Amino acid sequence: MSSPIVATWLGRVAYRDGWALQRRLVDERAEGRVVDQLLLLEHEPVLTLGRQADDSHVLARPSELRRRGIEVVRVERGGEVTYHGPGQLVAYPILRLGDRGILVRPLVAALEAAMIGTCAELGVAAYRRDGHPGCWVAADRNRPPRKIGALGLRIERGVSYHGIALNVDTDLRDFDLIDPCGVPGLVSTSIAEELGRSAEPPTTAAVERAGTVFAEAFGRALEAPIEWAGAPVEPVLAS
Fold it and tell me: Which of 116, 119, 117, 90 is nearest to 190 (CA)?
């Protein structure tokens, strides 16, 4: 059994504030001033592009994004464009990988396993798809494979950040703004959609419940105990 990971539920956080918090914690973890962290949250609507992502996969016009108050942010993680917004669980593992004796691929596998376990606990069968990072629901009847969770990481000074986004009860129409993960025609889904409850509006409470399940599943995947923080980490407000 490895050392504990401290999990914190942050609620709904503006993207730039969560990004600034991650970078602060990466520095503190690299210097040994904090232990490994798992941040669990929900973002306000935003599109993010990986460091080498093709911005042509943002399909919406800038005027439409401005009208809806949706910013496009290019960040350090790998991967293509993705959408974050209400009803979606975001998890950021701030882990010093050398201390746990793991490399990036085992971390990716653990994050995928935790998403699959979360879906299973909430009633949806999901799987890992070779060559396509993230979490998927298999094809059935007349529907193709559907992406329910995205994944993109960055490692700096031996510490991981960025992470996963799992669609809990997200409004899937927002994925029409992009080619999700840079794949035209990719079909996005959510736990609510797969359970036939897509008409229900997104709720932060549902995301928080999924976050609790995800944290415990992630701990099992890494054989690490999860310790819940008594109070949320204070975000650093982005300038």
Answer: 119
Beta carbons within 10 angstroms of residue 73's beta carbon? 12
Q: Domain containing 70 — which CATH number?
A: 3.30.930.10
The residue segments making up the domain with residue 82 are 5-228
Mean pLDDT of 33-45: 97
Q: Residue 136, exposed/middle/buried by CB under 10 A (0-12, 13-18, 19+)?
A: buried
Q: Is residue 234 part of a domain?
A: no
Q: Is residue 238 part of a domain?
A: no
pLDDT at 230: 67
| Predicted TM-score of the model (pTM) | 0.93
- Is 209 contained in some domain? yes
Asked if the structure places residue 237 within a domain, the reply is: no
Angle among Cα 38, 41, 46 to the nearest 5 degrees reads 125
Q: Is 201 exposed, middle or buried (0-12, 13-18, 19+ CB in 10 A)?
A: exposed
Q: Which of 94, 181, 222, 226 is catalytic?
A: 181
Dihedral sign, Cα of residue 103, residue 108, residue 110, residue 111: positive
Q: Give the Cα separation of 120 and 126 in Å (integer).
A: 7
Mean pLDDT along residues 9-26: 97
Q: Give the pLDDT of residue 146.
A: 94
Query: What's the rounded Cα separation, in Å, for the pair 222 and 234?
Result: 26
Tell which residue, 160, 137, 159, 157, has the closest CA to residue 149.
137
Domain count across the chain: 1
Q: What is the DSSP letter of 173?
A: G
Say whether 181 is catalytic.
yes
pLDDT value for 238: 40
Average of per-residue pLDDT across 160-188: 92
